[in-house]
Amino acid sequence: MKVLICDDHKIVREGLRQILQQLEDLLIIREAGDGAEAIKLLHSEVFDILLLDISLPDKNGLEVLQLVKTKWPLVNVLMLSMLPQEQYAIRALKLGASGYLTKNTASEELLAAVKKVSAGGKYISHSLAESLAINLDKDPYQRKHDILSGREFEIMIQLANGKSLQEIGNELCISVKTVSTYRSRIMEKMELSRNTELARYCLENKLI
Fold this sequence. Notes:
Number of strands: 5
Oligomer: single chain
CATH architecture of the largest domain: 3-Layer(aba) Sandwich
Radius of gyration: 17 Å
């Protein structure tokens, strides 16, 4: 089994590496600090599993996921995030992810997820399974936020959580002007005008 870990925090990569080394059939582990580095490695080597962080400095993890599943459809992608599952998990699975784990997941659950995914299965927690069951009755095309790009969706969640343009820019390593442009696009697509309306929408749709 060849695994690629993509996370911008070295300490997180090292922790994941230590956990994965418990796997008997593990052949090799490579590391990438951002989306561009991960794509470069995927061009040069064949990997079975990609552990992909959602929040990366250069690209949104969902955008990287889409690219990976387009170019390397056989690579099984396990998404990692500090965010609660309900915010991103269903969206990630629809884009082709094989599973979604929060970073506070116990090491045993991570190993179980990797084993299941490497065998061609999907890994979801019990709480996520309940969310998926609830969403089966909903037409995803009726939800306005489904038309947002990965980066727009990420910024929408941060705006809805009350973060300022400056705070979002600092976290994503982009300018305030760029964040403002994203906000304008989000508001136009969502047919909203104020952050309070955005927050209300996200609360009603259980995105925050």
